[in-house]
């Protein structure tokens, strides 16, 4: 799934300047959010702010979803054996396993991609971009990053039964369809699995006379079959979704997903250069949900020896199924409830209940990353619908980690996600493919175990920077003085704090009168606001405000603040600080305001924006 709460924010300066000169209204958009529209008249700018949809994954005002398969529709390939009792010594080798391949030697993941016919409805330029570049690139990333521990090769997926009814054939100790096998088997709701991918299917009438249906073919020589479709489904239309994905079949002994799909919503695609990185991050994220990053699979995780971490029901061979959450439950060896007492919010302290993934490698990685030896595990997202909640890392704690529930900026797949993949028990991860997560690095237990309000208050008391959080509303400040370069100097950032039209849920209130007392500059505007309405624009980050890339929308074009994209250049007539966007550009501060002389030098205007993107020409000088 995955990934662009591009804080669709906007480059405010050009808007301000535009306004100075032409009295145009600029549109300011915080990227992660998008539900309620509210007009704020602040100084001479008309700004729109949005409250966030907390479900799915917004990508530039749009969302990406992971849908957990309904329990009855989740099939187990080679499901003839799925009711076999497990024992430590039981070594299951499917009869169609390719004997030439070593079973025990972990080998690089092989993904077979099958394009649904709907995919070919894309115009040729989109088809080329996705089929020749984006999808192969995303797949290559995971093939190079993961080795499969228990190879099931080649794959023959299970066929579904009519009415999804199964019976257990006692004589052969196998499962069969109760009345008949379905003519077609789907992966997800829309994609029909081709006949050559399917195993034979047995059905038993009156539980007696059993017949096989479908010819078993050679199968697919891969570890995972990924179906790619581009169906404008109700999921796309209902929520302005970019893409959605899931696994659809698990292998029967170790329960690793062996089949899954990604549906790309046709209206969401773009060939704009600046949309390509987010699209790639999105595909990698979505594929990872299909490969195993899903709360629906936590109950199937294995220890290092291949034994289940959650006890299986002897009669089904599966973990216990919770009909309320619609998910297989995981034991406390995988997920634990943790109580955080003294959780600071608003003017009070509460006890906050959080869920943490506590598997060994993830635990070691998060402790190392945050430099907190008492950290219990990796916090899971507590907001959003079933496709977001628990199935992503908590946004407040992991911000730009790619497996958080919304894309904001600079998406990275960190060692923590790689550790997760190893802790599934199905993969060995190549950590050299992991990317560096800077957010929260070495900030200690106070950062990772307390609310962002606690962090901000305690840092202010010590006169220290409250980074990575921030606490001003750009719309209420002279934003031109508030821009910052990100650490990599490849984008211009602003604080994503906004005033909501509604009260923020109590447990996510991060401001109170203390903030007022300590912000002399804010006294002019704060009395107009209730503290219960103040928060960051990314709801999944528990409304904690943080510095985020900016994008701005004008004349229906969205530009953003990443320096390397030429298309982000301001219009020539409005390029007041002579910025230069392009592949060699970086973010710089020129520290002083610029003066612009107009009317044959008779008038003078001060442009106080002192941060912008500029082409690096004499890079070698910096190296010296
Ligand atoms: Zn996701």
Automatic annotation (TrEMBL):
Record's keyword annotation contains Disulfide bond: no
Membrane among the record's keywords? yes
Q: What class of enzyme is it?
A: hydrolase
- List the EC numbers from the record: 3.4.24.-
TM regions (residue ranges): 27-51
Q: Which PANTHER family match?
A: LEISHMANOLYSIN-LIKE PEPTIDASE (PTHR10942:SF0)
Single Gene Ontology BP annotation: cell adhesion
Q: Which organism is it from?
A: Brachionus plicatilis
Provide the alphabetized UniProt keywords. Hydrolase, Membrane, Metal-binding, Metalloprotease, Protease, Transmembrane, Transmembrane helix, Zinc
- Recall the GO molecular function terms of this protein's record: metal ion binding; metalloendopeptidase activity
Q: Which residues form the active site?
A: 286
Q: What is this protein called?
A: Leishmanolysin-like peptidase
* Domain of life, source organism: Eukaryota
Q: Which cofactor does it need?
A: Zn(2+)
- Kindly state what the record says about how the cofactor is bound: Binds 1 zinc ion per subunit.
Q: Name one GO cellular component term.
A: cytoplasm
Q: What family is it from?
A: Belongs to the peptidase M8 family.
List of residues binding Zn(2+)? 285, 289, 392
